[in-house]
Structures
1.
Amino acid sequence: MTVNPELQGRVFPPTEPYLVGREKVREFSRAVFATNPINHDPEAARAAGYTDIVAPPTFAVVVQELTLAQLLSEPDAGIDFSRVVHGDQRFTFTRPIVAGDELTATLKVASIKTLGGNAMITAESSIVDADGAHVVTAISTLVVRGEE
Amino acid sequence: MSLEVGEIVAEESFPLTRDSLVRYAGASGDFNPIHYRDDVARNVGLPGVLAHGMLTMGAAVQPVVDWLGDPGKVLDYQVRFTRPVVVDPEIGAVITVTAKIGQIDGDQARVDLTVTSSEQTVLGKAQVRVALPQ
């Protein structure tokens, strides 16, 4: 099974809206050792100018994951999940994610490169809020290891 | 804030145990069993149960957030996953982060992270672009 080169440039339908819950942000914050009061305490977050508690920078992965699931389950993608390794990851923010946000993500396959027997897929997920305003773009490079 | 390129702005270590991995699996929704089952990790040829790369990435930025005092001041954050972090069932693993100023442009800076476990670098090109506190 090989990765379908025609995936390059493909844009997927937007994901169902994801409502960012305050307790989910607290749970994620505890898991990544985020102890800043702005991540946990609504009063501290408001004092810093936010409407509610702020998610840690990598929280966007929870929403991005919904788009990567679309990519991996695309019938003609040719991606064998058991051979996928996470190569690199980037988040570019217009503003941080805050509890109460309703987020929608749209994935675009930015590039597919083959190197040796491996395929490198760069997937860009643009995450917007309920008003359609950009919040963060999450970019992942997935390495699909070739058959030995 | 007066800063110089090369200045270390934060240093911290994070002990990881299997509990940390289960907690991150639940919080993130990444339930790949290579992050909590020795038998599955062994069967796919891994040296042991590995920390989620995204857990290492998530923890590694926290010393920078604490230095800034506000998670919203992180404008861009990228890493390359260069080496897995094996988490021993009994003694766990430790991730050590050093955050150094790489570049200053006006009211923004690039902070370069060195992230190691067992004295080996586990993240490459780990860079955080931040808005500097006024």
2.
Amino acid sequence: MEKNQYLDMFIEESREHLQAINDHLLHLETNPGQKEIIGEIFRSAHTLKGMAATMGYEEITNLTHQMENILDGIRNGTYEAGTTLIDIVFEAVDHIERMVEDIASGGTGKADVKDVLSKLFDLENNGVQSEVAAVMEKPRSEESTFDDFELTVLSQSMEQGYVPYTVKVILREDCILKAARVVMIFDVLEQIGEVIKSTPPVEELEEEAFDSQFTLTFLSKESADEVKAHIFKVSEVEAVSVDEVVIDKPEPVLDDGNEEVKETAKELPQEQDTKKQASANKTIRVNIDRLDALMNLFEELVIDKGRLEQISADLNNHELTDTVEHMSRISGDLQNIILTMRMVPVEQVFNRFPRMVRGLAKELNKHVHLEVSGAETELDRTVIDEIGDPLVHLLRNSIDHGVETPSERIKKGKPEQGTIHLKAYHSGNHVFIEVADDGAGIDRDKVLAKAVSKGAVPEKGKENLSDSEVYNLLFSSGLSTRDEISDISGRGVGLDVVKSKIESLGGNVTISSKKDEGTTFSVQLPLTLSIISVMLVEVEKEKYAIPLSSIIETAIIKKSDILRAHNQEVIDFRGRVVPLIDLKKIFNVPKEPGQADEHYSIVVVRKGDKMAALIVDTFIGQQEIVLKALGHYLNQVFAVSGATILGDGQVALIIDCNTIIR
Amino acid sequence: MTSVLQSQKVIVFQIGEEEYGVSVDQVKSIERIQPITRVPNTPGFVKGVINLRGVVTPIIDLRMRFNIEEKEHDNHTRVIIVSVEDMEVGLIVDAANDVMDIEMDNIEPPPEVVGGIEADYLHGVAKLEKRLLILLNLNKVLSRKELEELKTIEEGS
């Protein structure tokens, strides 16, 4: 029971720490030398380990512990944070992530981590050989000297009964494949012990950048002669000398160095804790459900406020009017606060992208750099939760279809590394998120050809389409410009899904592109889903809300201006033929007796490029409303996207212009 | 359909001359009738939606659902808010004024046809001395599949 109490906190914080590790690892990869970054990763890992241990999640604890060892090694300069190493650490982080998610969904957090654990162990024991070598700037003198870490390893392994040897191998002058010999020698040695160091470094050995001899530091439980015999099994070896290493440095020095590491390891997390607390004082975690409950209560208050205003106007009591007015102001402020409480920075979504881009680029053998800006831009929580998937898809699209392979890029005279710019910014009542790549751009002809072959566009007149119309074809289902289906995109889930998702959020997405300069997807989103601006209209005695985002303008037309085209009433609206839609018919509104008017009030709405004019009876006015779902029972009502509660407590339906215009 | 409980608490309500019961577990509240906003293009028995303390809640007229002739709402008319499979729906009934314990032994399987209602909607019939209580199977009454079917029938006609 007591554990459950902390479970949510554990999961939340674990996610945060994992995200932090992910972020910092990516930074580390680009700035391998930065000690602070490693420190940050280490701290997160350490806290994570501590939490997991407290909660009794052994697998996570073990894995994090082993990861920590590696991080410690990086911090001490034992290993360089090269790609191979970071890959393995990422793999470990992935595993931990999966385990945490398992716990979050009610599982035990157990998983088979043997594989990655053994990789980490290998790393710890052997280092990534090429990278160990890279740390040592230049091969030192023939006589190997050891740095602190190596000395530590040596002394520790000696305690475990291993004997350190300096193995000097001289290959025959006429040896042809020296590198192959080296590999073979390493192979036999790994069978009986561990090579912890080589002079010259392994890289150079592999590139045959050595004369005919090299020196290894080797740990084994076998005797010197035995080791020699093993090496001689490899052909073309001229001479081998195996000498036991004598460590001349006094032991205490080693211990000191070691303890220092441990101490900093202990101190750092604490330091971070205090830092965390300092900032934690200013924020608290609130369950979104509670905010929703607060919102609901608040709406009731707003409705009561409306009634009070009505009553005070009727009674015309000065003091009452003053009080009610004051209350209205306060509730207005309150509404703002509650709304902003639901706002969260897009950072939450953007965070996971660098990692994803890295992985994808690797998979596709492309060099891609992701630039993120405006991550602090805030959006309503409900939008944030939904926008992740469409963005993932757009990014994948950019990496897969947009950015060219390094060789193509070089041919085009572009830098080898492609750049994807992920940008978020506010503008008016909207937030824009752009995914811009500097890749090949969209091939207009290819898209057109595909669209024609799929029957989406008639062969005739295809040349008349504007570029943007052609690009928009990409959003229709079943159109992928990729010739072969890759693993990344083109699995049937196309841009059409992205578009419909974004539109369901009340936003829209546009493409602009220039050949060989790149493609930009621009997603426009409403600031919040829960509150939208609408135009309230009356149809007979019923009130309906039309989202302002769909409205182009309102107008009053004469009945005599109505034209007919193919059994459909239309009007000429600024030179465009726009169909006229009678809401009374669509909504089967019961007719009230009354005299016929010579004029129609119309609201011109749009869906993408298409337009329609809705006939209403009266415009009530513009209003901010709180969006409500109709509930599970009435989940799909034609032309209605939701409901709202008006000031008088009545429910008004929100018209879904997207389904009216087909 | 089967229950291991020995007795069951039900809310008793009236439609016409007949008394019905729904399990108290499925009832969230009983409300007086209030203004209903019509939702177009829904089956006829869906009266519309109401503002139930800030939650937009759909309302079904049980009379129409059971193909019983409609009746003016009066002082006794109530809306029983029920919750079935994540759905919250209000049911308009003629009156609701009783809570009762029913012994499982007294429940009999539904007769072939009761008052024109498909026996499908019924859990069973409970005999209580001189009263007869029809126990509703709300899942069937609210079944969305039937909602769809009814929609197509209406559109077809």
